[in-house]
Amino acid sequence: MFKNPFSFEGRIRRTEYGLSLIIAAAGRVFISMIIASGAQEGLVFLNLIFQIPFLWFLWAEGAKRCHDLGMNGWYQLIPFFPLYLIFASGEEGINKYGENPKVQNQNF
């Protein structure tokens, strides 16, 4: 789980995608709270800079989840599509994006 979390290649399961959403949301809130505690107006830009790694992480994990469903990663930009990604079952077997992550985890 969480192999190459910033890569846009491969496939991930629903569990890893759900945990990714939770981790990214918690991290973004944590960073925002730390920066807001400074109470300076110039820190808004700094907040945006620190949010970039979390957004990259979310987009990469979303693209990999789309790949598990046999779709292009750009589908995650459709409103409410991440809800579908949480509940939809991945494609069985190998697709053009790689091996089934369910089978990969059972091999060891």
Lay out the secondary structure.
Layout: H1 14-36, H2 43-68, H3 81-87, H4 101-106
Helix pairs in contact: 1-2
Describe this structure in words.
By secondary structure, this protein is an all-alpha fold. It has one domain. It is about 55% helix and about 0% strand. The mean pLDDT is about 85.
Q: Per the principal axes of the C-alpha atoms, what is the gross shape?
A: elongated
How far the N terminus sits from the C terminus, by CA atoms, comes to 13 Å
Would you tell me the overall average pLDDT?
87
Task: Supply Rg.
Answer: 16 Å
Q: Unreliable stretches, pLDDT < 50, 5 or more residues?
A: none
Strand content: under 5%
Order of helices and strands: HHHH
Number of alpha- plus pi-helical segments = 4
Number of strands: 0
What level of helicity do the residues show? 55-70%
Q: Oligomerization state of this entry?
A: single chain
Described by strand count, sense and barrel closure, the largest sheet is: none
| Structural class computed from helices and strand pairing | mainly alpha
Domains (count): 1
